[in-house]
Specification:
The complex is a heterodimer of chains A (about 325) and B (about 300).
Chain A (H helix, E strand, L loop, with lengths): L10 H23 L3 H22 L1 E4 L2 E7 L3 H7 L2 H32 L6 H13 L2 H12 L6 H8 L7 H4 L1 H26 L3 H9 L4 H28 L4 H6 L11 H11 L3 H35 L1
Antiparallel strand pairs in A: 1-2
Helix pairs in contact in A: 2-14, 3-14, 4-9, 4-11, 4-13, 5-9, 6-9, 9-11, 10-11, 11-14, 13-14
Chain B lengths: L4 H12 L5 H6 L5 H28 L4 H4 L13 H8 L2 H28 L9 H12 L7 H10 L6 H24 L4 H9 L4 H12 L1 H17 L2 H6 L7 H7 L8 H21 L1 H8 L6
Helix pairs in contact in B: 3-15, 5-15, 6-9, 6-12, 6-14, 7-9, 9-12, 10-11, 12-15, 12-16, 14-15
Classes of the chains: A mainly alpha (about 325), B mainly alpha (about 300).
Chain lengths: ~325, ~300
């Protein structure tokens, strides 16, 4: 066998060669994986292990106020949640706050991005002013709104509506959800604006030019050229907005403390309350597990969307 | 028309000075200068309205307490630095120091872990790159509240409650997925020829990394650090639940200035200004990096 072709090596050699090649491939695989492992292990330890413990807690009855009663209770914590009307209203509040905030911030952000997507005197300054609410520490922003803006006696908002003859309103007590959403929208509109402005500015000018050459009106150009182009950016802003806003805790804790009663508690706040104020570990863990399941379902759909968008972008 | 012309030409010359805008000015059909200036005025009014709460906060921080909570609100007053002086002479120092330690420590640790990880997901990618990316981003969707109890219990058992190291570790875990995604987007922009040239030169992996790659993605590392700093500096939930007297950070200090009795608004405003200032300044000066960071590298 002196004339072996590389495509068809003799059988005696191939077994060894194959093993060597496999070993080399495995070594190469590990060499490639090595830089990733520290980060991967770190994230797994910090996020997955606590979550497994949460699942464990959710199957047990444990209340720090009643140390004697810890035992395995199966799914009864979950059964309790389904008859807990506060949990339902907190879940509803989560949805209302998240979608209310993301939707309003998206519309406002789009409007601002369109206003900024044209040259005018002081554009950089305007942009800087507009992004500032997003950079203010959220704790400071929440207290700024609940005290300086919405305070019933000396708040700026009541003073302003007083100028047009509207009697003062106790915003955070009478309209707690609305107040929270206003403060959140103020914080998140710049985020939406920045992403959408980047989208608008990545439009190809010759396409817009061609549209106006062909006699398309400004509205038609917006509707049929800009909006389809912006679709990826809108999807991205909504997805990221939902990821961040759904976990809102600071504003609720500081503006209304979930009140009056539990009227403005969202899921993170209600679970926190049950865990750290009620010391009911089993119940709060079960709620946490349910929240995660709901989040996974929503985010799987959303992530598929974003991966499609990213892959399309990387290919183009 | 002649009367209105000068402002238009003036604004056009202003913008030709900025190179990228030239095309836009010349290609767009000129709209009425009146409409344009109306739109500009409107934009300015909206921006000032939007900024007004921040301006009010800054204004209030220079008031005496009695003027801060007055009705009707006082716009004209004798500015005072009393509030800032009070804060500087109060116990605020340790809180801010803790914030600095937690932010700097976690950001450094994030970069140390994220840069090699992003390398393994872009330049010499592992087989299941998409799965790994998916895993990292999915941890950002895990509601923090669902894991706070076990973290609290574990930290209690290993005597790490009220310890700044705990915050450093948790902030690292919180920012690591974002940082990996961001760094990956920067690595993907490094041209393949550069890497080939380096490997032909016989440079080792670490050598390539240090001499070729890191300098090329340095702006990316800065942008990533900025985003990590913002999120770590502003974090409240972990700080609230896992710290007490020793490791409490600036957001906790802000909350503590709010007292149930007495006037506190001016003091709170001054503290808010001080606590927000580092991130506000960083964000102002790095607006472009901000966009890329917030979109985890997806928007350039």
């Amino acid at each position: 066998m002196t004339t072996t072709t590389p495509a068809r090596p003799p059988k005696t050699q191939s077994a060894e060669e194959l093993r060597a090649r496999k070993a080399a491939a495995r070594a190469e695989g590990w060499r490639r994986r090595a830089p990733l492992l520290p980060a991967l292990i770190f994230v797994i330890v910090c996020t997955q292990i606590p979550f497994l413990l949460t699942i464990w807690y959710s199957l047990r009855s444990r209340n720090l106020l009643r140390p004697e009663g810890e035992q395995f209770v199966g799914l009864s914590n979950f059964a309790d949640i389904f008859v807990d009307s506060t949990f339902r209203s907190a879940a509803l509040n989560s949805v209302l706050i998240t979608f209310g905030c993301v939707f309003a911030a998206l519309i406002l952000g789009l409007g601002l991005a369109l206003l900024l997507d044209r040259p005018f005197a002081g554009r950089g300054v305007v942009r800087t002013l507009l992004i500032t609410p997003f950079l203010i520490m959220p704790v400071a922003g929440a207290m700024l709104w609940s005290i300086s803006m919405f305070n019933p006696s000396y708040g700026l908002v009541n003073w302003m509506i007083g100028l047009v003859g509207i009697p003062p309103v106790d915003w955070t007590s009478q309209y707690p959800l609305f107040s929270i959403v206003v403060a959140l929208v103020w914080q998140w509109t710049p985020f939406m604006m920045l992403l959408l402005l980047a989208g608008l500015q990545s439009q190809q000018r010759d396409v817009l030019e061609a549209a106006s050459m062909d006699g398309a009106s400004t509205w038609d150009t917006f509707r049929f050229v800009t909006v389809p182009h912006l679709r990826f950016y809108i999807e991205l802003s909504v997805l990221l907005g939902v990821i961040y806003v759904v976990n809102t805790f600071d504003h609720i804790y500081l503006m209304t403390a979930g009140g009056p009663g539990t009227a403005s508690a969202n899921l993170p706040f209600y679970i926190y309350q049950r865990a750290f104020l009620g010391f009911d570990i089993g119940q709060s863990a079960a709620m946490g597990v349910l929240t995660v399941i709901a989040t996974i379902i929503i985010s799987l759909l959303a992530l598929r969307l974003i991966f499609r968008g990213l892959n399309a972008k990387e290919q183009s | 028309m002649n009367v209105a012309a000068p402002p238009e030409t003036a604004s056009a010359t202003v913008h030709t000075a900025q190179a990228p805008r030239v095309k836009k000015v010349t290609t767009r059909p000129p709209k009425g200068p009146r409409r344009s200036s109306l739109l500009t005025t409107f934009t300015w009014v909206v921006a000032l309205l939007f900024f007004a709460p921040v301006a009010w906060m800054v204004l209030t921080s220079f008031k005496q307490e009695s003027a801060a909570a007055s009705s009707p609100p006082s716009f004209f007053f004798e500015p005072t630095f009393d509030q800032y002086r009070n804060i500087l002479s109060s116990d605020a120092g340790p809180y801010f120091l803790n914030s600095v330690i937690a932010t700097a420590g976690s950001t450094l640790l994030v970069l140390l872990l994220a840069v090699p990880a992003a390398y393994a997901l872009s330049i010499r990618p592992i087989k299941r790159t998409q799965d790994a990316l998916f895993f990292f981003i999915s941890t950002k969707m895990l509601p923090i509240v669902a894991v706070i109890m076990p973290i609290y219990v574990i930290a209690g058992q290993i005597r790490m409650l009220d310890n700044i190291l705990t915050l450093i570790i948790l902030y690292t875990a919180m920012n690591l997925p974002i940082a990996i995604w961001m760094m990956r987007s920067f690595f993907l922009e490094v041209p393949g020829e550069v890497l080939e040239a380096a490997s032909i030169d016989g440079a080792s992996l670490v050598g390539t990394m240090r001499r070729v790659l890191i300098p090329m993605v340095a702006p990316g590392i800065a942008a990533t650090a900025l985003i990590c700093v913002i999120f770590a500096w502003n974090e409240f939930f972990f700080a609230l639940n896992l710290t007490a007297a020793n490791a409490a950070t600036a957001p906790i200090y802000l909350m503590s200035t709010m007292t149930s009795e007495g006037l506190f608004l001016a003091q709170l405003s001054a503290a808010s200004v001080l606590a927000s200032l580092p991130v506000v300044l960083a964000g102002w000066f790095a607006q472009k990096q901000l966009v890329r960071g917030l979109s985890m590298g997806a928007v350039k």
